[in-house]
Amino acid sequence: MEKQMGMFVIAGACLLVLFIVMVKNKLEFILNFCIRAVMGGIAIYGINFLLEANGIDCRVGLNLWSLLTSGTLGFSGVSLLYAVAAFPLL
Q: Is 59:52 a contact under the CB 8 Å cutoff?
């Protein structure tokens, strides 16, 4: 009986460690996404301000979709948004 109880304790400890690692990785992913989304929003706001100050009519809206794009892709997502916005100017 003690041998079986010991195996259950070891298996439970292993499952606990795996659970902690999975939660840590997901938490890190969510935190990175949020930081990229906030920095992307700040970048979009600043670039819109600079373009408007120079008289260039190429703005990207600051909405849920642009924040999701910048959160997922980072600065390259912000660049993609401005490339799509500038396409009609070509």
A: yes
The DSSP-derived string for 13-60 is HHHHHHHHHHHHHHHHHHHHHHHHHHHHHHHHHHHHHHHHHTT-----
| Residue (of 60, 56, 54) closest to 84 by Cα position | 60
Give the residue-averaged pLDDT of 61-80: 92
Q: For position 88, what pLDDT does the model report?
A: 85
* Amino acid at residue number 21: V
pTM of the shown model: 0.72
Task: Give the Cα separation of 51 and 33 in Å (integer).
Answer: 26
- Note whether 51 and 82 are within 8 A (CB): no
65 pLDDT more than 70: yes
Record the tokens describing residue 26, joined without a space. 């997901």
